Amino acid sequence: MYQVIKNAKDLPKEWDKLCEKNVYMSKHFLEYMEKVNYCNQSYHLFYKNNKLYSCFMMFERKFNLFIFTDKYDIKVNMKFVYLPLSVTKPSIVFGKDNTEIEDALNKMKGVKILINTDEKDALKNFTQGKYLPICTLENRWDSFEEYMHDLRAGYRRRYNQALKKGEKIKVDILKDNDEFTDEMYDLYEQVFEHSTYSLEKLNKDFFKNDISKILTLSVDDKVEAIVQIVEDRVNDTLIFEFGGYNYEMAHEYDLYHNMLIEIVKYAIKNKFKYINFGQTAYDAKLKFGAKMTQSYFLLSHSNKFLNYLIKKHIKFLEYKVKEYNFNVFRNGDEK
């Protein structure tokens, strides 16, 4: 059985159980997203023997199909199987048999895209392409001092320099995300405006959600940078969601490196196995020891000829992955 629900508040209890490994797919959070970023969301549920076995969330928006190239800017109406907040998680739970998902998606008109899928994921009439890789650091340290000790000399020196520049920085955590101010939001906007690839600009109210924590980096009682994190205990992962900083003060206090340092410190102190650094600023994050995992998208068009063109020319729509080779730790990747 196939069911479509238009409001997250109407989702059944089984939804949360099926989506328990994706913190952003909880009924509670999806209800909040409808309030702060409504984009005609819909929820698609698939049952077998009266048991929910697969689902996805979809929204619709006009978007540049060639976002990863500066040669074209062709905006088309697209149906996204994706979370409307630019995070590394998908908005689909595949089943062992995806025939019903394929049938439902293939009956929809126009462009359909699934984002942040795995290489093994495949759907009939959909073409797979490379999307933004995800940066993940595996935490194997009991203290930040151990982490610094394991770095090769050049990296350790660089982060000691950042800490020296940031001596005046005071780090706090908002007691209540309702304390998130216009000034803090401006820091996020500064980073957003400088981003190379930006799928979604979030409004101020998003940062007041109750599943995240917000770290503030202040100098002389003025917040110069923010870091939004999510504690994903189900997957033993600290997620770096979004950040923001004052570009005018970025060099003086080495703000971005100090933001990443605080994330590493937090993950080690709170004993997370992994840090999900997200899908941007690869050079900086890989130099902290993170590794890239390739993510993918699945793309289709209901028009057979246009779908043939997508399959034929998918390389023009893919993210071009740059090669990196940083030897960050003293004994390769081992302690």
What does this protein structure show overall?
The chain has 335 residues and is of the alpha+beta class. It has two domains: 2-131 and 295-316, Aminopeptidase, CATH 3.40.630; 135-292, 3-Layer(aba) Sandwich (Aminopeptidase). The chain has ten helices and 15 strands. The chain has helices at 13-18, 27-36, 99-106, 144-150, 153-165, 182-194, 250-253, 255-269, 282-286, 304-312; strands at 2-5, 42-48, 51-64, 75-81, 92-93, 111-117, 127-130, 134-138, 170-173, 212-219, 222-232, 237-245, 274-278, 291-293, 296-301. The strands form two sheets. Strands 1, 2, 3, 4, 5, 6, 7 and 15 form an eight-stranded mixed beta sheet that branches. The longest helix has 15 residues, at 255-269. It is globular. The model has no long low-confidence stretch (mean pLDDT 94).
